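>> received
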Amino acid sequence: MADRSAPSCHLRLEWVYGYRGHQCRNNLYYTAAKEIVYFVAGVGVVYSPREHRQKFYLGHQDDIISLALHPERVLVATGQVGKEPYICVWDSYTVQTVSVLKDVHTHGIACLAFDLDGQRLVSVGLDSKNTVCVWDWRKGKLLSMAPGHTDRIFDISWDLYQPNKLVSCGVKHIKFWSLCGNSLTPKRGVFGKTGDLQTILCLACARDEVTYSGALNGDIYVWKGINLVRTIQGAHAAGIFSMNACEEGFATGGRDGCVRLWDLNFKPITVIDLRETDQGYKGLSVRSVCWRGDHILVGTQDSEIFEIVVHERNKPFLIMQGHCEGELWALAVHPTKPLAMTGSDDRSVRIWSLIDHALIARCNMEEPIRCAAVSTDGIHLALGMKDGSFTVLRVRDMTEVVHIKDRKEAIHELKYSPDGNFLAVGSNDSSVDIYGVVQRYKKVGECIGSLSFITHMDWSSDSKYLQTNDGNGKRLFYRMPSGKEVTNKEELKGIQWASWTCVSGLEVNGIWPKYSDINDINSVDANFIGQVMVTADDYGIVKLFRYPCLRKGAKFKKYLGHSAHVTNVRWSHDHQWVVSIGGADHSVFQWKFVPDRKLKDSLHIAPQESLVDSNSDESDSDQSDVPELDSEIEQETQITYRRQVYKEDLPQLKEQCKEKRKSAASKRRERAPGNSIRLHFVHGYRGYDCRSNLFYTQTGEIVYHVAAVGVVYNRQQNTQRFYLGHDDDILCLAIHPLKDYVATGQVGRDSSIHIWDTETIKPLSVLKGYHQYGVCAVDFSADGKRLASVGIDDNHTIVLWDWKKGEKLSAVRGSKDKIFVVKINPYMSDKLITVGIKHMKFWRRAGGGLIGRKGCIGALGRTDTMMCAVYGWTEEMAFSGTSTGDVCIWRDVFLIKTVKAHDGPVFSMHALEKGFVTGGKDGVVALWDDTFERCLKTYAIKRAALAPGSKGLLLEDNPSIRAISLGHGHILVGTKNGEILEVDKSGPITLLVQGHMEGEVWGLATHPHLPICATVSDDKTLRIWDLSPSHCMLAVRKLKKGGRCCCFSPDGKALAVGLNDGSFLIVNADTLEDLVSFQHRKDVISEIRFSPGAGKYLAVASCDNFVDIYNVMSSKRVGICKGASSYITHMDWDIRGKLLQVNTGAKEQLFFEAPRGKKQTIPTLEVEKIGWASWTSVLGSCCEGIWPIIGEVTDVTASCLTSDSKVLATGDDFGFVKLFRYPAKGKFGKFKRYVAHSTHVTNVRWTYDDSLLVTVGGADTSLMLWTYEMEGHRDSRQCDSEESDLDSEEDGGYDSDVTRENEINYTIKALSTNIRPMFGIKPHLQQKEPTLDERQGVVRGSRPPVSRALPQPEKLQTNNVGKKKRPIEDLILELVFGYRGKDCRNNVHYLNDGADVIYHTASIGILYNVATGSQSFYQEHNDDILCLTVNQHPKFTNIVATGQLQLLLSMCGMQ
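>> returned
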């Protein structure tokens, strides 16, 4: 059976043996409920000594190394290691995450501390700067950060008696920090003569600015302010690792194994030497102490936790033990009892009771232990050692039976045969030795087939065969006990294996990912009865698979907890538990096995477990082979929104073209044209890859988007208003609950979300900085204050914003696959759901992160691809539409039922006051009651139902529905084909807006004497549009192929269309019926043109470098123009119809005589004299200026000249429409430019009377109409145009002072060493005058100098503590001459009603008293101040802000 699905049973963490004492300190505390909180590996543990029960926090995915307890002693903060480490704040009672703090630290989080009222948390990173961060942890917001120290910081603490003060200590330093505004300022502690400068390991703060700290030599240093005032010598015999302050005083613990208690003035109370107690041992080292009342908790280096009751201090109680530092590899389970045996590099072997959760025996060996096995009768325990020997002990009393050393290298695996007669021992030198148990372990055989070290072995049930795995991933078989290799396939077929712990073999193929190195799974154990197996791998994951597991890449359930390598894993003898051990974290995890029948009863699981389950992500998906995606969704997931060049790159690209700009600036260039254009109407709606992006506003207008334009459409007047703040494709749109604001998200390198008002069309907020490549979904919260957004980066990052402040509240990686929708819970704005490809997740905000839980499907089905979702009438209820046409109904995270709603995917749903409305690929709108029990009504979108007032034609019946919205008595529907329809509740349908469907639009032609135009697109349609105020599509015809060009005949009766297969048609311009069609070419027809006048000839250009000329009357080809070296891009006739101008892809400008097609060479001057019937070319001297400075990156794709030959309009690959004066001679002409299309503008055309400019965008499928406005006509509305790129330079604009100041480069000035030329040698670099001794070649110190004069000072004076030094006089600044005016402005102000003047010079802020002439100074800056301003608000009198130069800029406020 090749079932690739995940097993239905699961594992639940029941107990963890161990405590992380090594490399960590201060990580063990009592909670308010008198439970004990600590961590081991990647798990936070809350242990109740009274009930002997553990709870687990599993929110981390790597080793936890730091822990802090909130002052109320319920919440715990833990920090982990890793590339992108984060801090979790969690509740020790429910073990649920409260907040996640992330995106700041790297490498790891070394220490944590809460402040007095628990509002703020400070953390220290493990990065090279040991960054210190202060967080508002509830909000997940970083308040301040600063580099901590160049060396490791070991402890940090808030001063609990002074607000905003912190102390940190570490390698050879202690620092006292003050937090002011958002800046942390350190002052180093002065050791002075009182004590030696040395490493400080821990600290505690007391009243009156006193700080106690524990030093590496065992002394306690007492600080007052920043000065060392006294030391308590010999408090401990060695380093003090931990110091804990409580109401009664202080507890300290050190490397000498002692715990000392001190009163509040640090006078000794008592000392407890743990080494002298019953459980003590030599070398015990204390890493953590916690004193609460009469109980003291002690954590040791060797993973023990002691509890001491003060009045019985010589009887500490050992409450937790684990292996000490060193890798843990050996694991064996007892064959008949619930016992597990482990052996480690710490040379101890330990026996654990799985029922009592306790260590019941421990024995120390001579060598590190690498593997273990228990004999079948449970009497002997064999241990394989790292030095190649093995030892057999009696389980009963741990006495040695035998010790044998036959090998030089480590023993990796040993196993007893099922009949108990033999022991197989596999070693690092590639061989397996067989020993007879009864013959006192005499060697009876040897297997030597492997070429690499032995990793795993299993016996057959009859003890006649052994299979082995080695480091090369080879699987070999041997006959027992002789050790002869078996290669005969037949002989191997019938073997039953007694156990299965091998990682290679047919039965376990599925445990390997499809592409993986064969060595990263360390251990496997199969449970034959339950048909499941567990695996342990190098990534810290324990996985549960079905057994047998034959096909690669099988699905599994995974469990996190171990941090790095899980080295071994075994089922207990009765399959109730799984025991796993971690290599580096040397912890033992015990998991309870929950068979599937039990799972059904635990649907409403305790909160603890559901969290475990949410973190034990199922593999990619629960079920195995997911059904094929619907074709439409498939298509959509493959769209890439990446661009070669983004608009954000323009400034940089221009910078690179500086030389060109300079040369351009020197020549006089033509001014930009006086006339301008204004966006007037857009045909199109983005439905093919967006959903739910169409709404009614408060005033009954309709808001939607296409290309880079947000459109507000008034259906009564058939007019549109535009939001033009975006500069690339808008991909999503959401409306505020009050229906007056709209949020839109766009494509971009650092893509932005704009929130704008639909009435004033003004932006209210722009959010950027967090989404890469684009934003694909947005949603407002019910109170309108928050906004959720999803990016299209690889992780589909989800961000929650406070949009008015522009502040990111929380963020999380969403999913590897595409997410389609995000919805914020209307009742709880901290909760949200996302749906997407095989994805349904419920999120809740936790500080700066979001905690996600997968939807629990249970037995009801599989995780389908979800296309849409809404919340229901209570906060628990949610509804989602699937790609198969079902609606799923969810309560909390559980799927309750599914309802069949549509044929094909459900693309859109909308919640009403009572009930729901859904729309699907089947083109049906369905109204439902509020429980999805009954479908109340359906509307099919059909041509027959179209009402007479429609602005166009439906292309097909039942188009796929992508957006639905209700309001004003109507249902608003957006389709994949780019149509917007309004459905009346009684049935008739009005079509309001439409555009082309998916596919690029290139073909555009305007009618010679009517306000209509024709377009043809890759969507295989030819359409005629009315450009007069009725703005609608007049006719449409489906073509057999897509087309790229079209042209009206001069009388407007015929329309020629060039298609992508090399054929072209001429159709009747009114009915679009065929008149004639030809096919002479194979490649795309790129341009087609009737000759002027009677329209006698038709020129047809193709991408295979030819232009064919046809006689229209006789329908024959009369000429071929040859000689172009690339595809033809543009063509124009002269007025006489005798000459053709042709542009090609190789930027050639060619001329051909019609009708024969003979190539002509015409000098430039002559070309300008020729009268052209039209000008759509982009080459030649007349339009040299239309090519931008960055012409290599972007192409000008189209141009068109007004009939008065004054203004040339162009469209380019950047989505810009530009107007130039004609002729545009000279390079880089000035222009006006307009953004509305997103990427390529593929074609531009003026209408016959120049009143409108019509443009089409390639991939954005839109057709835009721009009104042409004469110079005087400019009304005062906001200007959509941006003036040309290079305004400033050549307008002769700069005054010499301004120019000079503009060119000052501050960075070099501030950071270079020599600001002014210097002569001579600096004093400390000067060669010392040699002394008399040195001149005479005497080594100093060999004889005392005879001179009575003082010896010359050494270059460096050493700080000899004993000597008296002359005090250093301080210099005090008295007067400063100067004021910085050369390159600053507005930097002198009156203060105090004119009594004082404030200004700056150098790095000093100066307050000058006018009456007395005295100065006072602000001297906190350390480099030139460049700007100064005074707060004008009456509440903040005398507050000044100044800004300075520096690599990392900083601002100061001063009073």
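>> The longest strand covers residues 763-780.
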